[in-house]
Amino acid sequence: VNLAHQEEESVSVSVHGRAGHFVGRFDAMASPCELLLASQDKALAYRLTHLAAHEAKRIERKFSRYLADSAVQRINRAEGRPVEVDTETANLLDYAAHCHALSDGRFDVTSGVLRRAWRFDGSDRLPSPESVAALLGHVGWQRVLWQRPWITLPPGMEIDLGGIGKEYAVDSTAALVRQHTDAPFVLNFGGDLYVSAPRPEGPWQIAVEDPRADGAVVRTLAINRGGLATSGDARRFLLKEGVRYGHILDPRTGWPVPDAPRSVTVLADTCLEAGMLATFAILHGAGAEAFLREQEVQFWIV
Amino acid sequence: MQLKKPPLRQALALASCALVHGTAHGAEGDWKLSGALLSYDEKDRIAVAATTLFATKDLGDERSLTVRGVYDSLSGASPNGASATTTPQTFTGASGQSAYTTPAYQLPTKKFSDERVAAGVDYVTRTSPTSGRTLSADISKESDYLSMGGSATWTEDFNNKLTTLAFGLGGSYDTVQAKGFPTGLQSTSAAATTTCASGGGGGGGEDDEGGGCEEDGKIKTTLNLLTGITQVLSRRSLAQLNFTLARSDGYLTDPYKIVSVVDPVTGATVDYLYEKRPSARTSGAVFTQWVHNFDQDVVHLSYRYYRDDWGIAANTAEFQYRFKMGEHLYLEPQYRYHVQTTADFYHHSLTDGQTVDFASADLRLGAMTSVTAGLKLGLTIGNGELSLRYAHLTESGDSHPSDAIGVQRQVDLYPQLDANIWTLGFVTPL
Question: Do B5 and A95 touch (CB under 8 A)?
Fold first, then answer.
């Protein structure tokens, strides 16, 4: 009896030919995803789209906050006990720890707990300062005992790798695709993307449909190589007495970063780097633009 | 790419690169080492010093390779099979080995020393998200013994990975290269005066009649089958049930062991015969284990029933309880109880004139009770561990069997074995 595939989800994939390349499409991480491959080989495009879809789904399942058997849920449900994690999860936690240090505590994978108080539904319902303050006791990477490969969360704390997960999935899947082909490609997971190399006829023309901006803002960017990521969501906010409260929270206060841009898009060497720079920028609030200038990257602020 | 980036970008780029290329598909991990130094010291008998080293490397894509190495040094006095009697006993080995004398009332033992070097590899792969395969190869060498083996195990996960079925197949091919192979059940004095004709026996097995000894290597083959099921009972409990079947064929006799022949009236030793065992052995075992994780502590309970066609039936129960003492320390008392019945052809001695097809006085084939009690202290640091274990083993059988004759009633026919076992173990990374 071969039950080997009982756990594999079926991923539906479509591949279409375009001028000089193929486009493979699938859905993962709650986003439309695509692989653009500069090749005449349709079978290869089909195979690589499948490969990418499975890798994206694998990462989605593994780091989901919602699936009971995910690595993240195992950590969050340990109720104060140490949890041993595998190499991949350990590398992500190391990365999260690095980012926490590099952002002076602004980027924090334990800040998801604050969502219990904050609901960004466009209304004027701000949480009470007491309810936010009560949750702050459960936020702070510095309270986590992380001794690779053992992680111990104090009871009541949770981690959420959502702030890294999609960018990690893009770079990780791109590395996998690159192992199988030398053909230039673009891997795009709902706007966070990676460009491996320019096509023979020049840079990729990438239309970034930004669902996070008001209205259908479409930018066409000419990109040779690198990672592009967007942080922020213009549709998620609260508005009270003329003050706009964006959904990016400062884990040190529990409150939205004042005067933060609605959305920041960065082009850097990798999708992870771009995504983290965009997130750091928003966490700098009014200083976002100055921060990005210092980093010598291409960026777009809304 | 820019050669020099702003410091923050540089740090992020490095961390991102480490994340993607440190993990991804096909990424290799570091070697993980574990090993142990073991001292096994039987009172008045054998001492073994063993060094084991395991090195495991994660090859990525859920594949791993383990290389195992063992070096044993054995020395001391090994019971030669003869039983104690009321007078001193002098033994001369076959092929002109030097003679030695055992004082009255003592278990005759022969001094020896040997070394064993063993090595093995395990290659573990996942052939699908729910199936795994382990391939192993082993080789072990002593001065007069060479064993080569291999095995394959398949596992299949069901039921959301709560149930795992395993099926294994293994085999080994062993060569015994003794200094002459005495003919079973022949008197040692006859053998000592018989010239060993080289190439004479042709390795034809123990039913060969004639010459006192044979010089060719003897072969032993073993085939093992395993099927098992592991069931996760709850977030904290796990149960396992295994069935194993083993078949050995070929030269299963110990060429260095003898059996005393006593006078049927006085019980005095009159001769010694070389032992002889059947040329096949079939055994089966059921093993069941339960592991439960309390908040901090872990308990292991296991039971094994073994039965073979030599007549041995054995029951073994084992209990371990790990007390967690603070964040890094644990204390683990261990207790093992083993009781077995005697092999059909086990005789503490034969009486003069008694005719048998097979006979061995190897104490390990006799009815006995073995108890091991130990305590392990472990220090865990991250994924690493340092541990020290002390255990005491006793093996006791029927010292004064009802069939003892004459002077045999005055001696201990199954002297108790006492052994001290120390183990120092480590697992990296510490």
Answer: no
